[in-house]
């Protein structure tokens, strides 16, 4: 007696379809699972046996072989419980085989026959929608909303094994879960903070507006108490709204990592994460025996804020060079080599010297030049080169703080940022990128044309300040964003000079 149930599994963040083949033959009672299962998959036997027993079915006292095909990819997790239970019942003739070819089934079983949520339902629905002949996907109820974001496949949320059996035997109708994507996006998130709280610091705010408009990395340098952390905590309030493609890309990562809230269909705000400086390489980049995404991937299409960046281990920072340049990380382990998307905007903050008061208008710095050099050099040249915008956040005097008029709020800034992003969406509609910061050299050649006087200005700055070829490109990208904020198609000399000005700080501190 043989039964074949379609299921799915996650490799990295993408899903692939697999067959759960169940063979029940006479002989001494035995249960074996093959197809590179890990411990959680092997333990499925005990959960399935108990669940079947508790809903009134007898577990066959026979020789049972489960094969997870393709057999050469390592399988992990408990999501095969439900397809294995269905397969056993089908092999015993208790479930009709008619629908088994048309539905993907995933779910963990509890001992009483209930179905528990799994990771990666969104990717599985995407994989199922691409496959010919697949009509629907049966997922745990808690995962139904995230899977239903994929409109090309019917999603059935189930809460128990008996319900699944009745559905497959066509004794019970389950309404497919439907989500309205327009409705999800219309729910506007309320932020805890607002840029209106930050007085003065107009230069820093302008730089942050440019950075978020184009997705550029930004570094803030300033003395203690200047407001760097305060500013950074408000960047997410001016980030542009997600497009559907971006939202799906990011939600897929959270879903595959098991970090998506239960019953949430789609993430509608960009992720903002601020890991502590004690984070490990694997925590930041991703890793583990079966590689899992790290912070750089959890902030894909969002914002990664590294406060006190010089306190991070130098090695940990250096591993960010690959994702900062390419927008993805590849992690190779004995079990698998996986690539995770990691196109994030980096915001970082630091003090100018160990005591923090270098260049302070009132307080005296007590650090020796050597000490300052050692401190500053913890941020390497190549990493600094990948940060498009460097700004100084000066300390404000107390009486300046009290005198300043109320500041512009986040909503007003977010509107301008949103308009600039709309222009970029149109520009990159035929490419796989969403903002200016991610342009490659072809895009730069096409979209960042400058006139002779601007070119002269840029060349003079390059020769004088010793910029690298990478910096040249990055200045052009920032200038493109500044022009987009002004809604002008042509990059002017004024845009170039503002972009150059954002790169002058490194000469001051890193020389
Ligand atoms: N521009 C400002 N407007 C209003 N409040 C401010 C401003 N700058 C600083 N403050 C106040 O000072 C506090 C300290 O600021 P914040 O923690 O952002 O400083 P920091 O630059 O990150 O310092 P450190 O280098 O020590 O981390 C803020 O919580 C806020 O109360
Ligand atoms: Mg701080």
List the main descriptive attributes of the protein structure presented here.
511 residues; alpha/beta; Ribosomal Protein S5, domain 2; Rossmann fold; four-stranded mixed beta sheet; binds adenosine-5'-triphosphate; binds magnesium ion
List the helices and strands and how they pair.
Layout: E1 2-11, E2 14-25, E3 30-34, H1 39-42, H2 44-54, E4 63-69, H3 81-91, E5 103-105, E6 108-109, E7 115-116, H4 121-130, E8 136-140, H5 144-147, E9 154-158, H6 161-168, H7 181-186, H8 202-214, E10 218-221, H9 228-232, H10 244-256, E11 272-273, H11 281-285, E12 286-287, E13 292-293, H12 295-298, E14 303-306, H13 314-318, H14 321-326, E15 328-332, E16 337-341, E17 345-350, H15 369-376, H16 381-385, E18 389-392, H17 398-403, H18 410-427, H19 441-447, H20 452-465, H21 469-485, H22 493-501, H23 505-509
Parallel strand pairs: 3-4, 5-8, 8-9, 10-17, 10-18, 11-14, 14-17
Antiparallel strand pairs: 1-2, 2-4, 6-7, 12-13, 15-16
Helix pairs in contact: 2-3, 8-18, 8-21, 20-22, 21-22
The structure holds adenosine-5'-triphosphate (ATP) and magnesium ion (MG).
Residues 228-229, 307, 349 line the site of magnesium ion (MG).
